[in-house]
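## retry 2 of 3
previous attempt timed out at serialization; input unchanged, resubmitting
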Amino acid sequence: MVEFSTRQLLVNASPADCFDVIVDFERYPQWAADVKEARVLRRDDSGAGGLVAFRAAAMGRSVNYTLKYFYGTNPLRVAWRLTEGDQLRCLDGEYELAPSADDEAKTLITYSLLAELTVAMPGFVKRRAESRIMQTALDQLRRRIESVSAERAQRRG
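## retry succeeded, writing output
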């Protein structure tokens, strides 16, 4: 069964700072607790990661998967599609970054994810695990973005 979820998060950083952290795949293992390895296999013409292989911990197992990233013409959107995965049938998603209407120094991130595991499990267990995974991922992303943004602000002045 394919599960679709969307969550929003307000971050104390500019959309550009958010984007920079999101596409810095090689550093994911430093701040995303479940990501054990991230390797950029292919870059697009701009140098951004186009095909990225991940090894992650999930539900007590090691999971390997490869995502193809799409940036299009909108620098405030990063989307991905699963191209290969040993325990996943689907892992497609996106981040949309919108400057806060109240404060240009803040960004509203909308995280959407469509996921399907190869392992069958009851729907309520899947939804509970998915909710925890998404919330943890967003909390870790917020901390990383705000940390990087604060470091950049200190360097500027």
